[in-house]
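Pasting as-is:
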Amino acid sequence: MPTIFTANSSSITLNGQPVDGVQAIDYRLVRQQSSVYALGSPERVTTYYGATSVEGRIVVASATPALDALAGSGEAFQVVASLIHGQTSRSVAFDECQFSRKEFTLGSGGHAETTYFFSATRVREEESGGAGAAA
């Protein structure tokens, strides 16, 4: 059975400080890979891996002064998402992050949202009470 983490139980910290108003966080981990083929054969014999990149985004209701300050500073930062489901929790840490883009949206009948895009040197995932998975 899958573990379903809930947004209202989970939290996000930026350099150890809680971030209020988070609506969403998502990320993409991409690992370059290439296939190796034997001479004269159309079948792959192995695969080798290269660079890994991590890109993420945080969507916040209206705006967050701490994220706004970092967006303009060029300083590296850390984001940690603490995902909760009952007694199960998972920590997803993004190390050595840099902002890449910021978008602001205000639609009719809604509230403002700011989306902060970042890249990270690495992402680490650890589950409580069990074996952690590192990416």
